[in-house]
Design a protein that fits this description.
The protein is an alpha/beta fold. The chain contains six helices and eight strands.
């Protein structure tokens, strides 16, 4: 178990399947809404991506909305919970870290993703802080284009867009 808890086992009482090693890691910094995180668990299960959650979480891992949004996919996903950003990044020492933010000039499709990369997303209620964005492990800031005067995408939707681009780049290997 990485750091503190194997969340998939805690959520479902089940076991995890080996991750698909061709995809980057998804990392949610202090997620607040159980439904979004449940959807991300389902995303991890259907793509083989590994999901990392940084505490504090805005919900309990036993939250019914988390379980409902993830449907019956919790035992098919690899999910780890870490007590801090540093602890999470220490567990992934070789990966480049791409912070997904609204105020970036590099579009997510301009990056060639690698399996050890980390795709970092902020909490639903705010963007990643300037202090976090200056962390020495942050390799770059990327954005997902939107129409003007729109604040942001839903967290799980943004993660879906990013991980599917990474999967597309490797030809949707192992997908059907």
């Amino acid at each position: 178990m990485s750091d503190r808890v194997d969340a998939a086992a805690k959520i479902a009482g089940g076991t995890t399947v080996p991750p698909m090693s061709r995809l980057p890691h998804l990392m949610f910094f202090q997620p607040r809404l159980p439904g979004n995180t449940g959807s991300a668990v389902r995303l991890a299960a259907v793509t083989g991506a590994r999901l990392h959650l940084i505490e504090p979480l805005g919900f309990d891992l036993d939250e019914p909305k988390l379980r409902r949004a993830g449907l019956d996919y919790h035992d098919l996903a690899t999910v780890k919970v870490h007590p801090s950003l540093d602890a999470a990044l220490d567990a992934l020492p070789d990966g480049r870290v791409f912070a997904f933010v609204t105020r970036a000039t590099t579009v997510y499709t301009e990056v060639t993703y690698r399996p050890d990369d980390v795709l970092l997303f902020g909490p639903e209620t705010s963007d990643l802080s300037d202090d976090l964005l200056t962390h020495p492990r942050i390799s770059g800031r990327v954005t997902i284009p939107m129409l003007p005067q729109r604040r942001s995408l839903n967290l799980a939707n943004a993660a879906s867009i990013a991980i599917y681009e990474a999967w597309r780049q490797v030809g949707f290997v192992d997908g059907r």
